[in-house]
């Protein structure tokens, strides 16, 4: 194993400032006095040195540059950007088993996923990186987490050894290990629902109650998600009344959420489940047909990074008085 993803506690602002100062000092030591670095930066800008050219000129990223070529990513990273690249050195790649590198080189799609997991859209200097308490989403889709341990900054479990190497279209931070994206989907439940395109009413109501932030969190959650067609069954006046009563609407929405990740196989084994709202839903299975109260499950096991969605054809309501 040469990359482990993890979850880190929020970093105190004092620690962030100290770490940023430490990293800036490290960078200055590695690249010489400030005036020298400014001269070099000016020289690079005059030659329009983009991220790829800057990495090649550094001389310590030959493997990375070669793999970018294999994955047909050179043109993209020479584009306008801006990009932030967490660049493994040649020494970092030496720690990767030869057979793994050969496998990636022979499978461009997998290689592209690994390499784009090292790239973030936008320009994030050391201070912004360390301030990203929820990590940064990469071009691959998953997030990189950042932490400070023993006055050293880490991207996942890769130590950030140098920072703020400027290029005309972004910035490079050097890391001492290759990092790998986690398995599974990269979008959370809310993002998955929005991307599906047939949950616009549900997404709007989640946003209006602030529950979109909850369901974008760590979870895991199981959501029995009514489609837009399901909401169309509700009389307009009833939906309008719910929209004007945030507490009641929140209760209805939470009645569609069960804590934990409950797959279709798990659902088929139970007769009821307690929702986040507090009331129970009834589960009935007839062969391959599953009903949640009176709603039919029309699609199951839509996986998200923080749980699972089961699509239902009817909005379900908590028992009256609850």
Please explain how this structure is put together:
The protein is α+β, with helices and mostly antiparallel strands. The chain has two domains: 13-175, FAS1 domain (Roll), CATH 2.30.180.10; 189-312, FAS1 domain. The protein contains 16 helices and 15 strands. The chain has helices at residues 13-31, 34-46, 51-58, 62-70, 74-77, 90-94, 98-106, 108-116, 126-131, 189-196, 200-209, 211-214, 228-232, 236-243, 246-254, 264-267; strands at residues 83-88, 119-121, 136-137, 143-144, 146-149, 152-155, 158-167, 170-175, 221-226, 257-259, 272-274, 280-286, 289-292, 295-304, 307-312. A seven-stranded mixed sheet has the order 10-9-15-14-13-12-11. A six-stranded mixed sheet has the order 2-1-8-7-6-5. Helix 4 crosses helix 8 and helix 11 (200-209) packs across helix 15. The longest helix has 19 residues, at 13-31. The radius of gyration is 24 Å and the shape is elongated. The N and C termini lie far apart (50 Å). The model is unreliable at 1-47 (pLDDT under 50).
